[in-house]
UniProtKB/TrEMBL annotation:
InterPro entries: DUF374, Glycos_transf_N, Glycos_transf_N_sf, Kdotransferase. One of its GO terms (molecular function) is Kdo transferase activity. Residues 264-442 form the 3-deoxy-D-manno-octulosonic-acid transferase N-terminal domain. The record marks E366, K442 as: Transition state stabilizer. Pfam families: DUF374, Glycos_transf_N. Keywords: Transferase. It catalyses: lipid IVA (E. coli) + CMP-3-deoxy-beta-D-manno-octulosonate = alpha-Kdo-(2->6)-lipid IVA (E. coli) + CMP + H(+). The active site is at E291. This is 3-deoxy-D-manno-octulosonic acid transferase.
Length: 653
């Protein structure tokens, strides 16, 4: 009966009107989430005359107006065209989409070679692409096989020079019994549109190029479908909600230990007294000091690109907040950065945080994977990225215990910028798909700063004595450092051992635990006298001073012991030409240690550490050679700018 209604006359007009009205109802009442790859965003909303082919499987044809409407809101002048066949189905599609500002180009070529307007359609497509329009195509249309990309799309891309943007669409729907199993949307549901990274087919083998397009379409379609473990995700959210009262007690305990700020404790529950600034706002989250420092160059590039941009920068530690207060005060754009403490991963707290700040895009750094936070960003439509992404073997093994939850969480990211190929492999093993390997922001960072006057004072305080530095030590490591000191001192009686703890608030406990109190502490303004064995430098953000002043550096968090492991960034001291050693636990920076190779000595215990330090102190020529081999180390200076550009694109810039 439907075929008869569509054959012509008033019945056809009535049927077309009813179908159009139903699709408008279903698509407009669906709560859509748009997950756009940063490289695809400028292609979908071109302002410089660029064109693109928008590819989607034929089964999602009636869902794609959701993407057209989204793009048209961002650029009302945008011109869109869709390629359809000249048969009855094609004419029906043309009539349905006509009021939506979508132009139709009709034509196809059958497998028998009989031309049905294909040549004219090709000329029309090339003309529209040359004029900077978007052209939507179904690589498996008009008759299949289902989800099998034909070479014609790759050929069109090669001829026009236009990139192919793979689009996957899903919403609550039912399927027809047609060859493509077409999806028909149901109203008042949820939907997701995923646009992958543009594919640029090379000249030559069109079949191989079509396969690339088909694989990209499959990946986008899979990403658009609801990820697994929805029940486990809801259970996680319920447990966090039930634990909220206990988390408040935990915050008060941390406050008593100096790990929270009393006047800003409410920020950890998503509350704030600061207003949201007008205009575009990008939210960046960095857990602690190292992550915060690594993204400052990227923030600088974003501010330079957009003079009206504001950045909401969240951290989880007081140390990072204190450091940022000092660093941002010296930047011309520092007033456009708002610091807040990140809310704990409780759905209600995250929800009110997002409702207040309404970020245009968000990026988490390194291994900050919080399921409720990530899910909340997805539900509220905040484009989300994971930058400088890292995942240790231990963390990967932990997430493997809940593989569905891990896959669901990683699927929410529109873009993951892995720190290294090894980190990318671990993330892919958990189900991450939309990923690049740009490089390590910490390697691209400038050398740690040092105030010349402060540096001169430190050099004066330690001059004339054999000295070595234990940097970024963790709880329990200082006892091992003291054991090494005792062995070294047998040959160097006037030795000075400088200890810079990772967490400065531990300075008093470290000084009290050493065998020769009172130990001078830099936090109290004390400098070492000629008989002092140790100097505890429990200040924040001064490693740049000590890496310059002390030529022999041991990197902490690397000797075996409870609660330790993974090491710290060796590039920071290497960049300043220090002779380096580390314990065997280096999982957090595997690629950086591999890159530096045997320029870093790996010491298994205090005895080996003492032997290494003694060897350098006893042989100045060997020390000089070790320093020359270690540095200087240069990262990719353009990396912060490339990531900044992508984040701005995610935010609609």
């Amino acid at each position: 009966m439907l075929k008869r209604l569509l054959a012509g006359g008033r019945g056809r007009a009535l049927a077309i009107g009813m179908l159009r009205s139903y699709l408008v109802l279903a698509l407009r009442t669906t709560r859509w989430t748009f997950d756009i790859h940063p490289d695809a965003l400028p292609v979908l909303t071109p302002r410089d005359g660029r064109s693109a082919l928008i590819a989607f499987w034929h089964e999602t044809l009636v869902l794609t107006p959701a993407l057209w409407w989204w793009a048209a809101r961002r650029d009302p002048a945008l011109r869109m065209h869709v390629l359809v066949s000249r048969n009855r189905d094609g004419r029906m599609i043309a009539d349905i989409v006509a009021p939506w500002g979508v132009d139709v180009i009709a034509g196809s070529t059958e497998r028998t070679g009989r031309n049905k307007g294909g040549a004219a359609a090709l000329r029309g497509l090339l003309g529209q692409l040359g004029d900077g329009s978007l052209v939507a195509v179904t690589p498996d249309g008009p008759r299949g096989p289902r989800r099998h990309a034909q070479p014609g799309v790759a050929g069109l891309a090669v001829l026009s020079g236009a990139p192919v943007v793979p689009v996957g669409v899903w919403c609550r729907s039912w399927r027809l019994g047609t060859w493509d199993r077409m999806l028909i949307p149901l109203p008042f549901g949820r939907g997701r549109v995923v646009c992958g990274a543009p594919v640029i087919p090379a000249r030559g083998n069109r079949a191989a190029a079509a396969q690339r397009i088909g694989d990209a379409l499959d990946a986008a379609t899979e990403a658009a479908c609801p990820p697994p473990a929805g029940g486990l995700s809801r259970l996680w959210a319920l447990l966090a909600t039930l634990l909220a009262p206990a988390l408040i007690l935990l915050l008060r305990r941390r406050l008593a230990r100096g790990k929270e700020r009393r006047d800003r404790l409410r920020e950890r529950m998503g509350l704030t007294g600061r207003p949201r600034p007008a205009g575009r706002l990008i939210w960046l989250h960095a857990a602690s000091v190292g992550e915060s420092l690594s993204i400052l160059p990227m923030i600088d590039r974003m501010m330079a690109r957009d003079a009206g941009l504001h950045v909401l920068l969240t951290t989880a530690t007081v140390n990072a907040a204190d450091l940022l207060d000092r660093r941002l005060a010296g930047e011309a754009w520092g007033g456009r950065v708002i610091h807040q403490f990140v809310p704990l991963d409780v759905p209600r707290w995250i929800g009110r945080f997002l409702r207040h700040w309404r970020p245009d895009a968000a990026a988490l750094t390194e291994s900050e994977l919080w399921p409720n936070l990530i899910e909340a960003c997805h539900r509220t439509g905040v484009p989300l990225a994971l930058i400088n992404a890292r995942l240790s073997d231990r963390s990967r093994d932990g997430w493997r215990r809940v593989p569905g939850l891990a896959r669901r969480m990683l699927s929410r990211f529109g873009w993951i910028a892995a720190r290294s190929a090894e980190d990318a492999a671990r993330l892919r093993a958990l189900g991450a798909t939309r990923m690049d390997v740009p490089g390590d922001l910490k390697e691209a960072a400038a050398p740690l700063p040092a105030d010349p006057a402060q540096l001169a004072g430190i050099v004066d305080a330690i001059s004339g004595r054999p000295v070595w530095l234990a940097a970024s030590t963790h709880d329990g490591e200082e006892e091992l450092i003291a054991q090494a000191d005792q062995v070294i001192r047998a040959r160097h009686p006037d030795l000075l051992t400088v200890i810079v703890p990772r967490h400065p608030e531990r300075g008093a406990a470290i000084a009290a635990g050493l065998e020769t109190p009172p130990v001078p502490r830099r936090a109290l303004g004390a400098t070492p006298g000629p008989t002092d064995r140790f100097w505890v430098c429990d200040t924040l953000g001064e490693l740049g001073l000590f890496y310059r002043a002390v030529p022999i550096v041991f990197i902490g968090n690397s000797l075996p012991g409870p609660g330790r492991g993974g090491g710290h960034n060796p590039m920071e001291p290497a960049r300043l030409g220090a002779a380096l050693a580390s314990g065997p636990l280096t999982d957090n920076f595997t690629e950086a240690f591999a890159r530096l190779g045997d320029t870093i000595a790996i010491v298994a215990d205090p005895a080996a550490l003492a032997e290494w330090v003694d060897g350098l102190l006893s042989d100045p020529a060997r020390l000089a050679q070790s320093r020359r081999r270690a540095g200087p180390v240069e990262g990719d200076p353009d990396l912060p700018d490339r990531i900044a550009a992508r984040l701005l694109a995610m935010a609609g810039g």
